Amino acid sequence: MAGARFLISGKVQGVFFRASTRQEALKLGLRGYARNLSDGRVEVIACGNAEALNALEGWLWQGPPSARVDDVARSDHGDDVTDGFTVS
User: How far is residue 1's CA from residue 14's CA, in Å, rounded to a whole number?
Assistant: First the structure.
């Protein structure tokens, strides 16, 4: 298992980004969470196999139809999240 932290910037709040990320992550068998940050970015913590994390990263660059993604910054993250995938 691997873990990654993604910070997504652009028009990513108020466009169902977190809910769509949850749906994609569950489809890929990942666990973790997505949350809005006060600076307008979305933070995604995801844990699972490396291929699924890479697939999620590719999806994050596009996001849902109403989003405009300017950047996705990825860093390693420990495998310390609970089961499932939540949004907050």
Answer: 31
Note the pLDDT tens digit of each residue in 15-62: 999 999 999 999 999 999 999 999 999 999 999 999 999 999 999 999
Domains and CATH numbers, the chain: 2-38+50-79 (3.30.70.100)
Q: Tokens for 52?
A: 């699924």
What predicted TM-score, i.e. pTM, was given to this entire model?
0.93
Helix (H, G, I), strand (E, B) or coil at 25: helix
* 74 is a catalytic site residue: no
18 is catalytic: yes
18, 22, 31, 41: which is the annotated catalytic residue?
A: 18
Question: In whole angstroms, what is the distance from residue 84 CA to residue 25 CA?
Answer: 9
Q: Which of 22, 35, 36, 54 is catalytic?
A: 36
- What is the spatial distance between Cα 34 and Cα 32, in angstroms, rounded to a whole number? 7
